[in-house]
Known about the structure:
globular; 24 helices; alpha/beta; single chain; 12% strand; disordered C terminus; 9-stranded parallel beta sheet
Amino acid sequence: MGVIFAKSLYNMPFLEWINLTDNNLTGRSLHAIIDAFRSLPTLTCLNLSCNEIDRPAAASLAAYVANNSTLSTLILNQADLDDYECRLFVAAADENVTLTELDLSNNEIGKSEISPVLRRQNGSGPEALASLLSSNDCRIKRLNLRWNQIRLLGGCSLMDSLKLNTSLIDLDLAYNSLGNEAAEILGSALLCNKTLITLNLANNNIQGSGSFTLCIGILENTSLEYVCLDANPVGEFGGVMLMQLPLEVGHHVKISAKDCTFIGVSEKEALYDHSTPAAEYELLLHEPFQRAIAIRLLSLVASAPQFQFSKFQYHKPRKHTHAKTKNFENIVLEEAVSHDKIKYLNEASRNTLQNLRRVEAAAGDIENARRLFQQYDVDGSNSLDVYEMQKLMADINLAADAAVVEALVKMYDIDGAGSIELGEFCYYLNAQTEEARELIKDLTQSKILVTRTHPEVKYVPPSTGKLLIKVSRNYAITTPLKAMTKAALDDCVAMIGEGNVGIRNKLLGHSIQHAILRKDEAVRVFLIMKEEMPDPAEVMMTVMPRIGMAKDVADVFCLCLPDATSQNRVRNVLGSCMNPLMVCCCSCSYHCFIPLPLQSLLMLYCYSCCYS
Length: 612
């Protein structure tokens, strides 16, 4: 039948797509069909998945691809391809000037890595792919390699090739065996790559240091929009770093970490402690993990003023210095503000930014306020009800449930009509202006460190040499915190998942460590933590220091602890610190009080305005 079908294909006009999936094609029939392809001048997509392509057929198909000038998509899923046949198709793809999508999933690529004999006989498919991707002429935009056996040296070479690649936008490596070393190399490659948009690394045995290095690469990368790390044993060390991503880069990249294991540590992870970064470091920059630590410390010092570099010394590689010359340099770093962040916002964040700017403009101009009011007054009643106000809050990333919005409407409904009229709306806008400005700044600006010789360029440590760093901490200075949005909290909760019993609260605590919580988010965090920590008073003492406004502290306190016993337990622990929190009614935005990150909750202080 295959031979008969091949004869029917000859010189068929206008044929652009052929799908021969799961047709049990082998040997003679495949050869005949491949020969027929050469007579089709308009073919752009070819799918031969789930057929057994032997070496002669692979050689024939590769020769066709190499000489073709129309084919853009080649799909060979579950086609029994080994490393030798992979190398044939890679060489063909290198010759082809139109091929942009290559699917080699569900094959045996990388199997030669487990045996020196097989490696000598078949070569390495992943290394051939690495050579293709690092080529200046590479045109592949989408590459699917899921469910292969990519590992060890081949996996490392493939990850390293992404430093030089300028064409790939979608890479699927799910269900391989990349491991930690390849993940660290990939994290380093992401610092250079400017084109990759989608990256799937699900189920690749990526552990703590690999996950940490990947997270640093994701934080610094500007093109990624989606990264999947599902079902990897990232451990607690990698999990803590993952929890930082939604707050720091959630505005432009979506992270999935379903079914990850957040338990387990390794000796390598002792180089860096998330909870006490103030320490001395000797970092070898040719090691991707250690270079990632240096980048994390630079980001931490730039964004958290209580941390400073008391020593930052770069030692050049010895082969680059003469015996009598000084081989180290004391680098002086200065703070600067980068406005590049706005360039990489996703569509949802751009819409949020646009609406926040409208709120800011409306607060100072009655005509702008009137136009904004009319936009959300859908029913034309000259007032905003609960549902219309809820839509407004969602559009500026202040999403809240109906009960919270209803309470807000009651707060600003001066005449008791049950809705907000234009004058009351202006009063609401004035109250929201400061928070809107802070959110705008968070979406458009980022703090960086620069050198005096290059004051406009963010300092990134080189990939060779050594850094001697000492980070010190000034406990008299506090960190300006970011507001935890509903979307960011949703992402954190999704990453933690239903599993990881015993560590969920710790991970959630790390996700809000550098954030301030609004009332709605604080209640949600309380309810999640309460599932694992049965004592509600203990949960409240964990959540309270992260709540932004003193009024919200009082509301959350009463809402989540309705019984007097739990309330009294919290009051007894906090002592006199509790009083200003529960009575403060100032309008000092969301920095009414700040927690010093010491172990005792007695270190909770209020700003002076709370006492006035």
